[in-house]
Amino acid sequence: MYTQSFNVPDDAGDAKTARLKAVPGPVDAAEAALQAHFDTVIDADHKVEPRDWMPEAYRKTLVRQISQHAHSEIVGMLPEGNWISRAPSLKRKAILIAKVQDEGGHGLYLYSAAETLGTSRDQMLDGLHSGKAKYSSIFNYPTLNWADVGVIGWLVDGAAIMNQIPLCRCSYGPYARAMIRVCKEESFHQRQGYEALLVMMQGTAEQKAMVQDAVNRYWWKCLAMFGPPDADSPNSVQGMRWGIKRISNDDLRQKFVDATVPQAEVLGVTLPDPDLKWNEARGHYDYGQIDWDEFWATVNGNGPMNKERLATRVKAHEQGAWVRDAALAHARKQQQRQQKEAA
Ligand SMILES: [Fe+2]
Ligand SMILES: [Fe+2]
Q1: Hey, CA dihedral for 10, 224, 264, 82, is it positive or negative?
Q2: What pLDDT, in 10s, does the model give residues 122-162?
Q3: DSSP for 177-233, written as a single string
Q4: How many CB atoms lie within 10 A of CB 288?
Q5: Separation between Cα atoms, residue 84 and residue 86, nearest integer Å
Q6: What are 100-112's pLDDT values in tens digits?
Q7: What is the DSSP letter of 319?
Q8: Exposure of 203 by Cβ count < 10 A (0-12 exposed, 13-18 middle, 19+ buried)?
Q9: How far is CA 165 from CA 3, 143, 159, 185, 220, in A?
Q10: Counting ligands in written order, which one lies closest to the CA of residue 153?
Q11: CA of 308 to the centre of ligand 1 (A)
Q12: Distance between CA atoms of 107 and 109, rounded to whole angstroms?
């Protein structure tokens, strides 16, 4: 799944203070004509395709956003993957395996979409493994009990859907098309999580307490997934101009809160925010302050699980080297055979 605004810069420094550099204008008449055509395509809400001319800053923004998104999908497999062997029934195990596999698939679509912009998968994975590239901060928290798996489906995948539905209309064709399938699968993820929690909430007092505990730990982190407030998101304006981002971080967050409160009521859990209440005048729920210092600390590598998640990814990549080598050797063999037959 997964997104957190994705307008957080990839750099080792303090991402909070990093700002998008001014987008350089065209250098000559030929480039000005290409830029004018690009602007027309964007203004008409048409799609930009891989072979079309695009401004360098647009390309770079997309590579950063799509690769961060891809990293979030595959790192997102880890907290839930830990529970496959401990799922409480065969049915839950089968559902969880399917979900975690889906997330791996989302990573593949997204790396492929980013590759169409001229960046190799090796480059992107190097960025992730070296700790330079960002991914959704939500996966740097531990999954302490079985209810966490349900809450991740309900709230984390739920937040991802909110964020990703507008991306189906993103101006870059391959990203938009990947998102259509991803969103359908996210919908299953959200429902399986919510259904697992509904069952637990009909169970023992201990099971209900587990659900409430998981909601308490994940609620605020899910609100932070939508990224910094609009006033602190300088990249968002350019993203909107380019048709990459359609709805602002704060508006998406509000939509998520408004959709989730009634679901929490049906479930019978309390969302851990004393300021959460319906505002008749606004027609929305008001909610309390998000701890942005904690968010930035986690984004910058100091969350409870950052080091472990990265170490697991690096280990998985190293241990998978023989698979990549075998696939390449097989491809070479096939190519040689085809050349022989053609000769
Ligand atoms: Fe998902
Ligand atoms: Fe996903």
Answers
A1: positive
A2: 999 999 999 999 999 999 999 999 999 999 999 999 999 99
A3: HHHHHHHHHHHHHHHHHHHHHHHHHTS-HHHHHHHHHHHHHHHHHHHHTT-S-GGG-
A4: 12
A5: 5
A6: 999 999 999 999 9
A7: H
A8: exposed
A9: 11, 26, 10, 12, 22
A10: 1
A11: 21
A12: 6
Could you tell me the pLDDT band of residue 92, with boundaries at 50, 70 and 90?
very high
CB 153 within 8 A of CB 196: yes
Q: Quick check: 277 pLDDT over 50?
A: yes
Distance from C-alpha of 183 to C-alpha of 110, rounded to nearest angstrom? 13
Q: Which ligand is nearest to the CA of 3?
A: 2
**Mean pLDDT taken over the chain:** 92
* Reduced DSSP (H G I as helix, E B as strand, rest coil) percent helix, strand, coil of the chain, to 5: 65, 0, 30
pLDDT at 113 over 80: yes
Tokens representing 130?
Answer: 């070296």
Name the closest ligand to CA 74: 2
Whose atoms come closest to the Cα of 182: which ligand? 2
pLDDT at 253 over 60: yes
- Residue 162 CA to ligand 2 center (angstroms) comes to 12
**DSSP for residue 172:** B
CA geometry: angle at 11 spanning 254 and 317, to 5°?
A: 95
- Helix-helix angle 249-267:157-164, to 10 degrees: 140
- What's the pTM? 0.90
263's tokens? 């679901």
CA separation for the pair 221, 70 (Å, rounded): 20
CA of 111 to the centre of ligand 1 (A): 16
The Cα–Cα gap between 119 and 16 comes to 25
At residue 237, the pLDDT reads: 85
Say yes or no to pLDDT of 264 above 90: yes
Helix/strand/coil for 306 = helix
